[in-house]
Amino acid sequence: MKMLPIKRLASVTLGKMVQPKPGDEGDVEAPYLRAAHVQPGGNIIDLPEQTMWFGSDELRNLTLCAGDVVVVEGGAGYGRSAVIPNDLHGWGFQNSIIRLRSFPKVADGRFINYALQDALTHGVIDLFTSTATIPHFTAEKVARFEIPSPAVSDQRLVADYLDRQTSQIDALIAAQERFVGFLKERRGAVVDRLLEEAGEYKQVPLRYIAADITVGIVVQPSRWYVDAGVPALRGVNVRPGRIVLDDLVFISSDGHKHYQKSQLSTGDVIVVRTGQSGAAAVIPESLDGANAIDLLVIKPGNRLLGSYLEMVLNAPATRERSSVEVVGSIQGHLNVAALRALTIPAPPVDKQQEIVDRWHEQAEEIDTLIAKTARHIEIAKERRTALVTAAVNGQIDIPKEV
Question: How far apart are the first and last CA of the chain?
Answer without folding.
Answer: 25
